[in-house]
Amino acid sequence: MLADVDTLLATADQGRILREGARRVIFGEPNVGKSSLLNHLLGLERAILSDIACNTRDTIE
């Protein structure tokens, strides 16, 4: 039983990140590919892409 508790404690941070997510900032000049990078990292189209500078405000939910 002690080994099971040790395993749970050792992976608690990973579980929290999987449940709650991790807040990060992608920062850069307009139209340099921040939204494209986000979509690529996530493996899905989450951010709206546009050729108009400063146009990405929200993510698709």
Description:
With 61 residues, this protein is mainly α. It is 44% helix and 0% strand. The protein is built from 3 helices and no strands. The protein has helices spanning 2-10, 12-20, 34-42. The termini are far apart. The mean pLDDT is 83.
Q: Into which percentage range does the β-strand content fall?
A: under 5%
Q: CA-to-CA gap between the ends?
A: 41 Å
Which percent bin holds the helix content? 40-55%
Please outline the major beta sheet. none
Helix tally equals 3
Structural class: mainly alpha
Order of helices and strands: HHH
Any low-confidence stretches, pLDDT <50, length ≥5? Answer: none
Oligomeric state of shown chains: single chain
The total strand number stands at 0
Kindly provide the radius of gyration, computed on alpha-carbon positions and rounded to a whole number of angstroms. Answer: 18 Å
Shape: rod-shaped
Average pLDDT reading: 83
